[in-house]
Amino acid sequence: MKSSIAYDENNHFPLENIPFGAFKTAQGSTHCCSRIGDKVIDLAVLFNKFDGPLFKTLTENVFDQPNLNKFAALGKDFRLEARETLQKMFAEGAPAVDAAALVDASEANLVIPVFIRDYTDFYSSKNHAYNVGVMFRGPENALQPNWVHIPVGYHGRASSIVVDGTPIVRPKGQTTTDGKTPEWGASKRLDFELEMGTVLSHGNEHGKPIKIDNARDHIFGFTMLNDWSSRDIQKWEYVPLGPFLAKNFASTISPWIVTPEALSPFKIALPAQDPGVLPYLQDKDLSSYDLTLDVSIKTPTMDQWHSLSKSNMKYLYYSVAQTIAHHSVTGCNMDTGDMLGSGTISGPEKSGYGSMLELCWGGKEVIALPNGEERKFLLDGDEVNMTASAKGNGFTIGFGNCSGKITPALDDSHFF
Amino acid sequence: MKSSIAYDENNHFPLENIPFGAFKTAQGSTHCCSRIGDKVIDLAVLFNKFDGPLFKTLTENVFDQPNLNKFAALGKDFRLEARETLQKMFAEGAPAVDAAALVDASEANLVIPVFIRDYTDFYSSKNHAYNVGVMFRGPENALQPNWVHIPVGYHGRASSIVVDGTPIVRPKGQTTTDGKTPEWGASKRLDFELEMGTVLSHGNEHGKPIKIDNARDHIFGFTMLNDWSSRDIQKWEYVPLGPFLAKNFASTISPWIVTPEALSPFKIALPAQDPGVLPYLQDKDLSSYDLTLDVSIKTPTMDQWHSLSKSNMKYLYYSVAQTIAHHSVTGCNMDTGDMLGSGTISGPEKSGYGSMLELCWGGKEVIALPNGEERKFLLDGDEVNMTASAKGNGFTIGFGNCSGKITPALDDSHFF
């Protein structure tokens, strides 16, 4: 595909991508948008040019909205038509598009693309679950007996999900040294988690599960997700009801939601599951995407980003469809904009571990940086960025950035 | 106080109460409402009669809304003014009120009163935490070491919170008999949890904690809460990330939110905490309410409700203010309508245990019903109701009902 907008083959946003997002216009309202090359496309301005048979039936500008939810809720056929319309509109040789609809990406104020009412985080990477299990319980009991039968997950905090670039305040809270006495202070083990998020286009009626064969139809698209974690707060609080404050201070997502259509050339089968799962989880299309994930760091004294880990979305044990079917099997109702995190995606080798907890092996090793600095966990001023990309024939599909900078904890006068 | 609306001293809704809710009008729109005696008061119809200094500044009918969030977000002073206005409007001898604003409670279609974006459940009753701990780990290790330092909590599912009277479909899912092999089927250990919910009027900026001294100012009011639980699904899934599907199929709340003002005559100090908590949790007003809680059952063969347990909101170890301060200490942002569950509130004696898990002691005992039936957990067709009430001098403050009937699990064709 060739576009009227110029970009090189490493650009994350060729005409083959057509991601969706939202941005604040110069006038201060929020519009839905897409991106081609280094141009953000204001879809609200172009709404009247969407002349396909489905869009022609709409009476409301679904892009002149504070987020993508209204558009996403229209479902797959509308999403496909929007994609095709944009690919035609910006094809090489197509008539020029209203210049008011094009904003330089460097100028665009991207905001959180969807209203996420409910956020659930899974634990679907076997490498990650195994690594954490070894650290806490040793190699013999690393994986809990339920792990190969259940896509283990838990409810996360939706309100504190922020978009790429939002500073992350180091949390304060309770930790312990001796396992029984609480200590007050700033988290000393602040970590990232390299994840992918799945955003739903629509949900299910309360009480009615989503069958696994239909689960993929509920996907609007995918985001990068950094599920920031405080390991020392987590360790003290998480028994018996799971992580709470250790996770709820912030999670960062990429501004762009990339659709299943854009990722389809990179679909890859997942290894057969052994032991087999119960029928409601049996996925005839057990698959993920061959999507390279990178997490990089830039400390205050570094000029360049340094890659800490390279993983891949193919290192999941459970498919996204399995997590959707599992989530709704009790009749739990899902809705447009709900986000399901994959859990930290770690590769099989240390070079692909998706958290500092694993990279420093629970604090036993140091992570050497190219400028001579060392890290175990994140220090104030450190910036973390995550990217996800796949190379096609002459093009790259990506998500942009998913970054955040650690700012110092507030002083105690803010707390008591 | 005497009202122009007649009611007896056991009615939950005297002029001293003035709870808030929402209902669907005969015309099909949703209005905010209150209740006095057996009359539901349509506040949207009466909005123009709210002539206090604060309400006079409003340009929008905050009661002509799908839920209470807009009104709640105005904060305590508006809530107090609304309360006083209604108490004057319906005082004995006051001019007659537009009859269109009064709906018989038996006719009113009450809906969920607030949009709850985020729901968190705590574990604040020591009796309950101890009982569950004894069943799982024995009396020596019943309470985890963190329990007396941390108001333990976890994120719940907001989307599946339903209002009084909504049928509850028995969930299906994975359970295990041997601790390692999954079994498919309907939950055999379906339970209730007797809780109170706290609904926030407003939250905090992301990154900025709510100090405990200010925490009570964030409370809009309280609801009854039945956090339905599947004990067999829970047992298999909950290690290591906590309860997930065991809870997310449904939680029921009362249609009425009762304000701190209505409950203030029943405020009661909580026992001093030993050991003491960290400064951010030190509550100068460590208190709860002397509110009698009842959970009753009616099986398909029973004509009358039978009380299974009588507990009290005073059987909390942590104050609601402590749970708010704890939740936000990492900077997690809360918002209008967020609900914090207390966790199951169990009294010190068996007659006050707040779940069937405790009443049947993990399945070891049977719960005898007056008609000769026995239960350990809930069977299809069983109805459960919860009430909360406090007796003042010649009046009663209550929440109405918080009920649900168990309907059979769907057949397997809905799942695979």
Automatic annotation (TrEMBL), chains A, B:
Keywords: Calcium, Hydrolase, Magnesium, Metal-binding, Phenylalanine catabolism, Tyrosine catabolism. Pathway: Amino-acid degradation; L-phenylalanine degradation; acetoacetate and fumarate from L-phenylalanine: step 6/6. Residues 120-397 form the Fumarylacetoacetase-like C-terminal domain. The active site is at H128. One of its GO terms (molecular function) is fumarylacetoacetase activity. Substrate binds at Y123, R137, Q234, Y238, T344. This is Fumarylacetoacetase. Its EC number is 3.7.1.2. InterPro entries: Fumarylacetoacetase, Fumarylacetoacetase-like_C, Fumarylacetoacetase_C_sf, Fumarylacetoacetase_N, Fumarylacetoacetase_N_sf. Belongs to the FAH family. Ca(2+) binds at D121, E193, E195, D227. Mg(2+) binds at D227, K247, S251. Pfam families: FAA_hydrolase, FAA_hydrolase_N. One of its GO terms (biological process) is L-tyrosine catabolic process. It catalyses: 4-fumarylacetoacetate + H2O = acetoacetate + fumarate + H(+). Its cofactor is Mg(2+); Ca(2+). Residues 16-113 form the Fumarylacetoacetase N-terminal domain. It comes from the Eukaryota.
